[in-house]
Task: structure prediction
Amino acid sequence: MSIRSAQRARGCLELTLAQAERSNALSPVMVRELDQHIAAAGNGSEVRLVVLRGEGKHFCSGADIGASRGRDEHPARGPSIAEMLLRWDACFKPTVAFVQGACLGAGLALASCCDVVIASRNAFFAIPEVRRGMTPGILPFFQRAIGARAFRRYGLSGERFDAATALRLGLVSEILDAGEWDRAQAKLLDAFLYAAPRTLAAIKSIAAQAAVDRIDPDQLLRKQVQVEDEASEGKASFREKRNPDWYLEE
Result:
């Protein structure tokens, strides 16, 4: 397996890119496994948070171009990188990426599809495809994460930028030493467990639609109706000064 999966307590699913010897470059096998894992997580009620990490020195150095040419892996026809990214982006479960070292190309697009990105101080980022004469489908994910203006510099130049710049651009939520990651993960898990699961999914759907379309009042009303029972429980728990029933105790 090129992706290591571990189901932790309280609904936390940890996925680890486990090809450190290739700097976790995304081979077709890795892409297929990432697609399968996020599809299963999105469909299962037992998962409340998906955490993505990279094994070794680097988070992900981009697409494994050698593997895509059939160097040593010959999987059956699977999803493209763009198709896998669309599934991650559309997942209605909250997603968190912990990034160290290189986060490049398709790896940066994958991080951009996550709701929260925590970076180590040694993390660095780039979309170098323009320097290779490529116009990949991964660019829209990156542009949306940093904004159109910043993209005109970093997407068009392909230059690297550090964690502090990523924080300033809004790509990264926090910069933390790797030794602080477990505590940050526990804090994020607890925070997301307070969110009503189907309400959270509805909000992610509304936000995704609002990012590309005009605001549709009918759509907002439809999403609100879908989660009325959670709204009732949320109001009751607030009145009774208790945690809602979707919060998983330790």
Remarks:
- The two ends are 30 Å apart (CA to CA).
- The CA atoms of residues 105 and 127 lie 4 Å apart.
